[in-house]
């Protein structure tokens, strides 16, 4: 869980940096493309290409395309029809997708994991619900695709590593992830990007470097590696922990107005969901039919 907590802290800073320095100033697709390219420059030289099994390679290409490529394309498209509060509200459903995909792949139903995911969604909803306006159905569907692909990527990686054990460490096989992401992000930039809105100020490039090297390279790698060491319920609820932490960072560093009472209550509910998930692991015996 340590890897997941560390990445959550990175995400907490990343959201504020994007909102302050990039949103409305730098083309979104270019920003995503730069993130993938920088991350790829870190991991591609480390990858042992000839020592990776073809099935694992194809799986990693698919995971990268889903978890980063499709997810971020849908996310940025959703901003065209949704307000920021609506985007934040609809992304809190990711834990449900993680739980359902995990149970489907394991051919089981774990009520504790589902309960923990629902509690995590409730906690994030307490923090972020600000009401809805306008015709948001299209944006809602886009974000459900993004939630699904982001959840599918991390769950599939967990299962892929389990099915294809190797003496190679994770980072020696992770370069394929960014090639898969690039296969989606590059065409998206060519089709939807606006080259008239490229970074002009030094702080914007510095933020892009941070997002590419820390959030995308280190963050995506450690998150997926951490996903392999926790149960599905814990992984699900950890997907919403960035909501209270991100708002807290925004409040303390950039002095953005947030309802501190709602932040504390919602954060406490999310922490409780982690406890429920871990309690469920102890309550559900490993030898009960249908639990694996």
UniProtKB/TrEMBL annotation:
A GO cellular-component term linked to this record: plasma membrane
Broad class of where this protein is predominantly found: membrane
Keyword Repeat: yes
Transmembrane segments: 29-47, 59-81, 87-105, 112-130, 136-153, 174-193, 205-223, 235-254, 260-277
Subcellular location: Cell membrane
InterPro entries in the cross-refs: CO/AA/NH_transpt, EamA_dom, EmrE-like
Keywords: Cell membrane, Membrane, Repeat, Transmembrane, Transmembrane helix, Transport
Annotated membrane topology: Multi-pass membrane protein
Residue ranges annotated for the EamA domain, each copy included: 4-127, 139-276
Statement: the UniProt record of this protein carries the keyword Nuclease: no
PANTHER family according to UniProt: ACYL-MALONYL CONDENSING ENZYME-RELATED, BIOTIN TRANSPORTER
Protein name as annotated: EamA domain-containing protein
Organism: Pseudomonas avellanae
